[in-house]
Structure to design on (448 residues):
């Protein structure tokens, strides 16, 4: 079915101009519909990609005329719908057993945006509305920072093509700054597939507030990714930039506010939120926000704590829970009441039903207390450290027994004991435990 649909879609894109004349509205409408993600067709990424390619090809076949008939050529009446379709396709992050198949659609959309823009500029630059031009540049720059090499190459080459296009593309924010950051020779020499080359080039763009959000969003999935070389080069580049601005409160606030915005916009969206937690753990652990730690209850720390709590509420993903533990332990470097709030969250996780989560929490809390000894009363520190290190948190003891030990720590650390929401409503059937509390489920979810 998929290949049949792809064949028909590509055939429509290959129609000659005389066959399209008088039928362009119907043709565009059908192809635009084919680019949309529906529940039924969610896995048909190839068809969505080919629909984008066919729209691009048809636009080239019929040409662009500002006041031309909308049923025969691309004109001011229908060009906006083409831009909207391509920009919407840039948000396709569909995945299946083959991986991120949405990248095929995004690559086709990047090429399509460049083609339709180049054609429009040859006719009348005013055909391109400012909102579409800005969104196009933002979307393309986001792709240049993402994790898939091929997608970065397509996006990077397209970005430089648009930046140096003649006649110039209108409404590109901070054009002069971008021209200085990316000299024309980069069109031939910059290897976008190389993480070691492209990420250092992207970092200065973060200082241009208009571009901070899309570039940081693209970087998130790379810095918090899984590929060792990609993580190494992207995180090193970001850390180098962050340390450069570590004494500049305004620049640091711009980055921190953007991180919070990204987090808030992608709450419970695992594609972004999981790597974002890993990236935040890395940045906080690299002393990038040390300037903020000098202020009691800095707004950034409090907002980040609340977002982390929302992200892992009712969360059954061990990987995300482990990432959140790292962020919590880093947040104790901030002074004020936030320390008590962080300790409460960590102690809640110390009584979690997943043994792996409990053990990881205990290990990280132990390391945290070695670094920040002033978090709890000095007379209780040794006893707390002993309990954390000597208790078998992932052993065969019942959850009730584990939580008794956890509650002992609460008393020693001066933190209110967590109350299980389910304890007030005991289940009638106690015969079978929640499957998620078993090692078998945990091992399966962690992929071991």
């Amino acid at each position: 079915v998929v290949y049949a649909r792809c064949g028909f879609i590509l055939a429509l894109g290959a129609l000659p101009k005389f066959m399209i004349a008088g039928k362009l509205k119907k043709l565009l409408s059908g192809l635009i519909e084919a680019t949309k993600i529906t529940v039924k067709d969610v896995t048909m990424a190839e068809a969505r990609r080919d629909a984008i390619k066919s729209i691009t090809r048809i636009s080239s076949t019929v040409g662009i005329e500002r006041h031309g008939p909308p049923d025969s050529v691309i004109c001011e009446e229908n060009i906006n719908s083409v831009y909207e379709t391509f920009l919407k396709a840039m948000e396709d992050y569909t995945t299946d057993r083959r991986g991120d198949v949405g990248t095929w659609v995004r690559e086709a959309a990047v090429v399509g945006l460049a083609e339709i823009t180049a054609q429009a500029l040859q006719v009348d630059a005013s055909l391109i509305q400012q909102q579409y031009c800005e969104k196009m540049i933002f979307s393309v720059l986001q792709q240049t920072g993402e994790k898939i090499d091929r997608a970065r190459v397509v996006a990077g080459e397209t970005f430089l093509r648009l930046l140096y296009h003649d006649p110039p593309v209108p409404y590109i924010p901070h054009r002069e700054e971008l021209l200085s950051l990316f000299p024309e020779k980069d069109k031939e020499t910059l290897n976008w597939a190389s993480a070691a080359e492209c990420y250092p080039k992207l970092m200065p763009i973060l200082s241009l507030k208009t571009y901070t959000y899309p570039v940081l969003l693209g970087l998130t999935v790379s810095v918090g990714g899984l590929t060792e070389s990609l993580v190494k080069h992207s995180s090193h580049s970001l850390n180098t930039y962050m340390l450069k601005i570590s004494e500049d409160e305004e620049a640091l606030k711009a980055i921190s506010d953007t991180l919070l915005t990204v987090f808030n916009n992608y709450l419970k969206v695992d594609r972004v939120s999981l790597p974002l937690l890993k990236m935040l753990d890395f940045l906080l652990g690299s002393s990038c926000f040390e300037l903020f730690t000098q202020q009691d209850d800095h707004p950034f720390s409090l907002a980040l704590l609340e977002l982390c709590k929302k992200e892992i509420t009712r969360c059954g993903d061990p990987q995300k829970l482990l990432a959140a533990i790292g962020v919590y332990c880093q947040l104790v470097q901030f002074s004020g009441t936030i320390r008590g709030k962080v300790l409460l969250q960590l102690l809640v996780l110390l009584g979690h039903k997943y043994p792996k989560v409990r053990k990881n929490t205990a290990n990280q809390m132990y390391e945290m207390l070695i670094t920040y000894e002033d978090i709890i009363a000095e007379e209780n520190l040794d006893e707390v450290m002993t309990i954390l290190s000597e208790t078998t948190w992932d052993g065969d003891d019942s959850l009730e027994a584990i939580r008794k030990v956890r509650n002992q720590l609460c008393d020693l650390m001066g933190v209110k004991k967590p109350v299980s929401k389910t304890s007030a409503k005991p289940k009638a059937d106690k015969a079978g435990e929640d499957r998620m509390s078993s090692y078998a489920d945990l091992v399966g979810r962690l992929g071991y």
